[in-house]
Amino acid sequence: MIADLLFGQWFKIGIVLIFGTFLFGKVKSLIQLRHIKGPALNRITGTPHTLAILSGGCHFWYNKLNQKYGQLVVAAPKMLITSSPDLWARINTHPGYTRSKWYYRNSRFDWRHDNLFTQTTNQTHDEKRRLMVRGYSGAENLTLETDIESCVVKLLHLVRSRYAGQKKVMDLAQKTQFLALDVISTISFSKCYNLLSTDEDPNEYLKSTRDGLWLGNFQIALNLWWVNWIPFVGPKPSQDIESSKGFYKMTALNASMVEAREKEFHEQKESGVVPRADMLTSFMKNGLLGNDLKIENMLQIVAGSDTTAGSLRGIFLYLMTNPRVYKKLQAEIDEAVESGIVPKSPEIIKSAQAKELIYLQAVIKEAMRVFSPVNNPLARDTPPEGDTVIIDGEEIYLPGGVSIMPSFKAMHRNRSVYGQDADVDVFRPERWIEEKDEKRLEAMKQEHSLMFGHGPWQCLGKTIALRELGVVTFELFRHFDWTLVNPEKPWTDANYMGIHLTKDMWVQVEERKHS
After folding, report:
1. Could you tell me where the beta strands, DSSP code E, fall in 19-146?
2. I need a surface site. Which of 52, 129, 301, 331 has the fewest CB within 10 A?
3. What stretches pass through the bilayer (predicted)?
4. pLDDT (tens digit, 9 = 90+) per residue, 375-401?
5. 3-state SS class at 512
6. How far apart are alpha carbons 220 and 54 in whole angstroms?
7. 82-120 pLDDT, tens per residue?
């Protein structure tokens, strides 16, 4: 009787304490962020944010918030979204800001270990980055240019032999993914997946990527990183290729290839043989070995292929739906070939030559502005002591421990950067050429580059991606004409973990008479 009474009292006290702690947290958040605009519902619950992530369209939701409430908005309790490039640049370089664990823990490919992208300890991140930077820069990857060219040649052959002029439709979303995966596998460990050569994906890399990113997106939305640690509940990745499924089959395949390369590297080192010059060799020479090497390779494959493929799809979509720009780009391409600036076919344009073509570069830059290939929350926590920032000339205090995310879709349409009367929703490459105000043009370029990260957090693969985009866009529009099969629904697209997973981008292709 007494035990029942005591148990009942302690149970009630526990309920009161739990509810009180929950209520205190909500009230504290309301008070801390009361000076920042945003919907009332967002201040008391994270449900709208969770639903936006689960929908696969959180970037649209972020953009609407910033368009309605300004450059800094409450997205959820203790969570803000910003479209201010100045604020986001500061967050990436100012001491005290750290990566938000709620986002990066859920973004791990191997839930037990961090990769360069998910590492939340600044010092550890910087140390690992130093081991990898030379491999990404091309300083120790001497075949980078020719590796990209070889994959472009395969793509041209595939389009020409199987689709061009044959009254067949082609899924451009799939082919750009094939290209990106073939490129990253070739430059990474000198072993091409050969998806373009066969026009098939026998190991289901595309499906595995979708499965992995969908699962990661689900975990981020509900903050379920801890579930992975529950015995008999969390996923059990295996090194056995045959028994693995979905995303873990992809990781097992890559792990086996990396293990073989590391074994070869050590054997060559002992025998005095010069190892092949690719990214994995560079990483190993600089001390990245074992499990860390496998984890970073997996990051290369997923992040390096999906973002590049997404950029290409955006470029193609906006060119195919803007005939004026399409014709102007092809005119520049033809002039470059006829004048001898670019070698005639079958030789492939060099990335340095593509970089000198002004309109081509403007098209790429503008397509990535209107359709950002990266829409990750990339959340950062404010310093414990908080920070005072300036937005639109107004001082705003950011309390400590608040998570801030960028809205790149809104940032790329920020009128304080592009001009109050700017046609920010229009695809117009000329804005990057005709802008007379040097200060504004520099601000535009700086804002645009933020999608690749900033300061010590800048994407290591940026240079490789831009090289690839210039060469591929030039060659595909030099040789072929492209038409969308269904302009009313050009593709099926979802944003999972900030990466666009696109399929069913059906096009028809015709060989150009003058290429």
Report:
1. 72-76, 79-82, 98-99
2. 331
3. 6-25
4. 988 999 999 999 999 998 999 999 999
5. coil
6. 9
7. 999 999 999 999 999 999 999 999 998 887 889 999 999
Tokens 């995303």 identify what position? 247
Maximum C-alpha span of the chain:
98
Q: Are 301 and 446 in contact (CB under 8 A)?
A: no
The answer to whether the Cα torsion of 179, 180, 184, 187 is positive or negative is positive
Distance between CA atoms of 154 and 150, rounded to whole angstroms?
6
With tokens 């191997």, the residue in question is: 110
- Check if the beta carbon of residue 388 is closer than 8 Å to that of residue 364: no
| 459 annotated ligand-binding residue | yes
256 residue type, one letter: S
pTM over 0.90: yes
| pLDDT per position as a tens digit, 14-67 | 665 565 555 545 555 557 799 999 999 999 999 999 999 999 999 999 999 999
Query: Residue 33 in contact with residue 43, Cβ under 8 Å?
Result: yes
* Cα 328 from Cα 315, distance rounded (Å): 14
How many Å apart are CA 206 and CA 299, to the nearest integer? Answer: 15
Q: Which two tokens stand for residue 504?
A: 């069913």
Both tokens assigned to 337: 């070939």
As a whole number of angstroms, the distance between CA 55 and CA 32 comes to 29
Hey, what are 127's tokens? 């140390």
Both tokens of residue 345?
Answer: 């076919």
The pLDDT score that the predictor gives to residue 5 is: 52
As a three-state string, the secondary structure of 353-421 is HHHCCHHHHHHHHHHHHHCCCECCCCCEECCCCCEEEEECCEEEEECCCCEEEECHHHHCCCHHHHCCC
Beta bridge partners of 506: 171
| 443, containing H or E segment | helix 438-449
Provide the H-helix boundaries in 97-162. Answer: 101-104, 122-137, 144-162
- Cβ-contact 479, 160 below 8 angstroms: yes
Burial class (CB in 10 A: 0-12, 13-18, 19+), 143: middle
Site of tokens 């800094």? 72
Please name which of 280, 213, 269 lies closest in space to residue 246, comparing C-alpha atoms: 213
Token digits for 269?
């080192």
- Write b or e for each residue in 61-82: b if 16 or more Cβ atoms lie within 10 A of its Cβ, otherwise e: bbbebbeebbbbbbbbbbbbbb
Pairing, β 492-496 against β 499-503: antiparallel
Q: Where does residue 204 fall: left (phi above 0), alpha (psi -120 to 50 degrees), or beta otherwise?
A: left
Nearest to 49 by CA among 20, 78, 71, 24: 78
114 token code pair: 């961090």
C-alpha 295/C-alpha 283 separation (Å) is 12
Q: How far is CA 238 from CA 136, 219, 295, in A?
A: 28, 20, 14
Which helix (H) or strand (E) segment holds residue 257: the answer is: helix 246-271
CA distance 261 to 357: 38
